[in-house]
Amino acid sequence: MASEGISGMSVESLNKQRVLHLLDTIMRGDLEAALSCCTEDVDFLTHAPIDVMTHMGPRHGKAELREFWQTVSSRYSEFRYKVPQIIADGDEVAIYLRAHFKKRSNDRIVQFDMAVFYSFRNGQIAQIREIIDSYDLVQQVLEREIGPLIVGAGMEAE
Amino acid sequence: MTEHSLWRFSRALHRAINDRHFEDVEALIDDDVEWAIYGPIDMFPFLGARQGKAAVLRVIRQLADNFRVRRFERESIMLGVDSASSMLRYSLTALDSDKPISLRVAQFAQFRADRLISLRVLVDTFDLVEQALGRAIHLPKMTSVG
Q: Mind telling me which InterPro entries this protein's record contains (chain B) (predicted)?
């Protein structure tokens, strides 16, 4: 499960450090440093309702990923995170991430947990896959519960 | 080479859900296990956080009461010494409606002495709710705030 990398450090340890470095660069808003961790053809996919959260669609390549991170930065500030769990195996790293973002529009905090899976190629991140508790995230972003909307829509349909 | 704890736990969990054979999975869960499947607990009571073997076994029984696993595919898997993470694509059948449900799931597991001590599961819950409802949830597009 652990393979030898450069300087005696395992590939797994190195890739974990690379992922934590990427998170630090994103959180401090240094998007160019974040992009330098990625391959030119980096592929990004979040499993989230993109018909509602339109900016969260698939992104391919550095330019599209830059645009996504810029959109997030324009809407949120004071990014903080914790990583309760990180696992690496060869060229793959998975993190369990607890993120806190502050909305620029009204200073409210959005807090959510997400799973992120990274694949590396030649020491750079080539693929990012995310899974979020999206129902909760949509409620926090909308600042309202979705449940009554579902019930209301059901009654209208009847 | 010894089999990773994840494989034993995964087989036992699927056997519990599909065949209602709970003895194997019970033996693989630590008494003080921490367990969380994040999602709307008011809609799906088997979601949420649990602590301890008895509470977790009740959740597994609830899962068996509500779903059958038709198929699953591991899209990504990482094995640590006493930990594992995977992204899986599940095809389930909801037993009350006989509806198919397709889910992408991320799981993070930790083991001690071959027993599960922690499991965190994340699901694209908006998609889950829409599938359970059998229709799309129409919300305003969040083009400037999301």
A: NTF2-like_dom_sf, SnoaL-like
The model's pTM = 0.91
Distance spanning both ends of chain B, measured CA to CA: 48
Which option is the CATH number for B5-133: 3.10.450.50, 3.40.50.12780, 3.60.21.10, 1.10.3430.10? Answer: 3.10.450.50
Least CB-CB distance to B122: which of A87, A92, A132?
Answer: A132
The ranges assigned to domains in chain B are 5-133
Distance CA B92, CA B70 (A): 5
Query: Given pLDDT bands bounded at 50, 70 and 90, which one contains residue B18?
Result: very high
Residues belonging to chain B with any Cβ–Cβ distance to chain A shorter than 8 Å: 38-40, 42-43, 75-81, 83-87, 104-106, 108, 110, 120, 122-129, 133, 136-146
**Distance in angstroms (rounded) separating the CA atoms of residues A28 and A73:** 10
